[in-house]
Description:
Helix content of chain A: 55-70%
Radius of gyration of chain A: 21 Å
Number of strands of chain A: 0
Oligomer: heterotrimer
Distance between the termini of chain C: 22 Å
Number of strands of chain C: 4
Number of helices of chain A: 15
Mean pLDDT of chain C: 86
Largest interface: A-C, 48 and 32 residues
Shape of chain C: globular
Strand content of chain C: 25-35%
Number of helices of chain C: 2
Low-confidence stretches of chain C: none
Radius of gyration of chain C: 11 Å
Shape of chain A: globular
Strand order of the largest sheet of chain C: 1-2-4-3
Amino acid sequence: MSPVVGSTTxxxxxxxxxxxxxxxxxxxxxxARLTAQADARAATFWLFGLAFGFVLQRSRFCxxxxxxxxxxxxxxxxxxxxxxxxxxxTAGFAVLMQRMVPDPGLGVIAxxxxxxxxxxxxxxxxxxxxxxxxxxGGCVSGSLYRIGEGYVASLVALIxxxxxxxxxxxxxxxxxxxxxxxxxxxxxxxxxxxxxxxxVTFLLLVGAYLLVIWWEVRQGxxxxxxxPGRPGHTFGDRIHGALRxxxxxxxxxxxxxxxxxxLNVFVYTAHMPWGVTGEVxxxxxxxxxxxxxxxxxxxxxxxxxxxALVGRGGSLLSHTLTLNLGMVAGAFAGxxxxxxxRLRRPRERRRYLQALAGGVLMGYxxxxxxxxxxxxxxxxxxxxxxxxxxxxxxLAAGAWLxxxxxxxxx
Amino acid sequence: xxxxxxxxxxLFAVIVxxxxxxxxxxxxxxxxxxxxxxxxxxxxxxxxxxxxRLVDVSSTRDTYVAGHLQxxxxxxxxADLVDPTHRVKGMAPTREQFQALMxxxxxxxTDAVILYDDTSSLFAARAFWILKLYRHPRVAILDxxxxxxxxxxxxxxxxxxxxxxxxxxxxxxxxSIVATAxxxxxxxxxxxxxxxxxxxxxxxxxxxxxxxxRIPGAVNIDWRLNVTPDGSFKPVAELRALYARAGxxxxxxxxxxxxxxxxxxxxxxxxxxxxxxxxxxNYDGSWEEWGNRTDLPLQR
Amino acid sequence: xxxDVRGEICPYPMMKTVEVLQGLPQDDILEVLTDHPPALESIxxxxxxxxxxxxxxxxxxxxxRIRIERAGPGG
Lengths: 410, 300, 75
């Protein structure tokens, strides 16, 4: 529960909120049931999507703000949450990967692990993505879940992302030949076993955490005083308070981060780590093909893991499709329960332009990095790939650049 | 002018002689040996030999219909290479079923059978194992299959060859290349059990039987590790290092399995015919049997 | 003083709040009207550092009013 909203007066009776939530859950269950008839895995991923969307919405989780606010306001509230989520996911991923590939020296990388080639493409991708997400005010997953909350500009950002991915698809073969194909694929367990890979990853996570704290203190961090809420002592008051804490108030970023980390382990157990961009690229390439601007064969895109571009083919109903749609629906449900849903249009016209331009940068960056803040970062570091860290550093640098640009846009 | 013509004729004769020479050198004549793995050049040179029979074991009949090697007959790995009456799905055909298949395809006991597919020799290896199960002497796999054949710009045809039934007589099973569940149970912890499935199936995360997991002590070598991205087998030295790292050495008996014994046959082919290990068995029941039998131990 | 940042998303609600706070008279109270839930987390966090404290109340469905006032001495 947020410490500062103790005096909030909520005008919706809780019963009505739960009613909305119940209705959303029933509709979701029906969708899951219908989907399951066509594809059981697609139904499972629809449910995962709902959970991801709900957690993102409830904890107001935003990867863009995690990086941006470090530079813009000097606080790392969300970044600390992300680091917590990464720690949880790293432990879980390691267990899963060790079960699948007991001997990492055999020459196999754990299936579906987001381990991508290193190189200039990854750094450039991180920079472009970092700038883009700050200008647009949200990354790919942020845009998806905010669509569910009613943000019209996020829809524009998604269109920009698809345009960026389309552009990326048309230049993919160049990047593949120039940098990606020859890039070193560095999976830490292969170098020194799972133990060493875990030690290195946790040391880096702790180091990053300490760096954030040091930075916050340097910037004059002070925690807000908690404002005591209306004390409740009866059974009813306590339940009411607990429900409000979960359904109405925003969750602390640390709770959100850890919940997302746990969900990521579950979704990997079911098939693969969390990622959204591969599916969005499928939409982009599909639309390109419809309008006759087919990018043709994407060389090697099928060989690299993570969220690389997905070309044509495959059935429309895929589990990544239901995962993405589930995220939008889960955020919608969360927003409805909290009474936060509302169609929001920016009053300033230039915000649409920002969303579009930021989206294009993100889409192109995600092509080069073979993933977004999820696929190339939140799922890559727990996959024990060196690419996650390289992308994170480039993303931070890009966010810093983005902040410089943002300060000049009123 | 005349001199030129004569010169060309001489050249032509030399070429014809050379081509005839290569084709005569390898499989012609009844018991001539055939290497177990042949490349497209070898197949092109021997395509026309009367005792060389090409068998397309591609993933679907559509692939065969769309285009196949000259003279190739189609074998459906799901329908022709299984025993439909067996309680366990995907078991090798019985001797009678196998004999009937070979007769229908017009293959004679003395023929050299060249197998190929469109899936990195996955089904070709299964067919190879079945032919060896009934002791067919001359069998080979076309390395890289139809994919490599096409990459080398070699021709395909849509003509289905006319086949007249043969009088094939299947030999009794060679039990030295098969393992049963009971055989395995008695030797758990002795030899090496090699799991050719995906790491997800091996870990019990992708469950395709009543139970998920692996045979206790099994080592995972996903069959896809046997091939390069273009679908050819990796060089022998590389394969030897891969299997040695996983503890599969030639002095030990190795039992391979997967879900229905198809992917396992690929590892079996590598171990027995590319690396030359003497004692390699395919557990034909595989996880289809093991995972569905509650009396057998498993590991997750 | 009142500041309406409805329609704006992060980081603009906070950037504009900080801008106005810098010119806010000593004993005045700033009321920020927003429809962006993350601002309910980020604004209190940041203005605390500047020596303010705030209370939040829901103004309408999906709209909130953040009252920002100077923290007491020592606070």
